[in-house]
Every structure is written in structure tokens, then in C-alpha cells.
Amino acid sequence: MFDGPEPIYLQIAQQIRAQILSGDLAEEEQVMSTTQYATTFRINPATAAKAFAGLVDEGILYKRRGVGMFVASGAREKLLAEHRDRYFAEVLRPALVQADLLGITPAEIVDHVLGRGPQDRPTPTGETS
Question: How far, in Å, CA of 126 to CA of 108, rounded?
Fold first, then answer.
């Protein structure tokens, strides 16, 4: 399961973030304990604890003493905002720079995204050309 190049604790944290983003883990829902995680995935409990501690530091999870770890209120929106920011910075901005170098106009980009050709573009009068 954890066969990526990054450390297992980072893979665990990323898996939990993905579950929150997808809605598989809802806000205020309890997360599997570090012991359960270690047993289920056959990893060292300290590795799972390190992943959880990182998510607590990020404000994604919080601990209820004596009860366990829970998804923090607002965690999904926080993760969505972080992913949106990263998308704009790492994907869209470089693509727009490349489009500019290729002489692709903003109107051509919009047409392509909307799946229409230049003939389908509205004119200033509101009609399609």
C-alpha cells in the first residue's frame, strides 16, 4: 500500500487528506487510531503517530483526549483552498505563460476550455459569429 518514494508517514498523511477532500472522511468524524492504523497496514505505530501529529499541526485533525483523533471543522475547505492555490501556481500559471509564448489568446483558451470553436464565440451584440 505504501510503496511511494516518500516516507510512509507522509503517504499516510496524504491518504487522510485525500479521504477528507473526497468526502470519505467528514468533518468531526473520528479517524482510525494510530494502533488500528499500525495493525491494519502493518506499520510501526510511531509512523502513524508521526503522520497524525503532522496533520494536527496543520489544523486538519485534532485530538480529543481519551477518545481519539477527529477531522477538524473546516479541514475540507482548508485543503480545497490549498489545492486550488497549488493548481493555479504550479499548473495554470505555467500553462498561461506557455500559451502567451505561443501567441494563444485568452479567447482561444476560453473557447478550448468550453469546447467550442471560434465560430461559436459570442459577438459584442450577443450573437454567435
Answer: 18
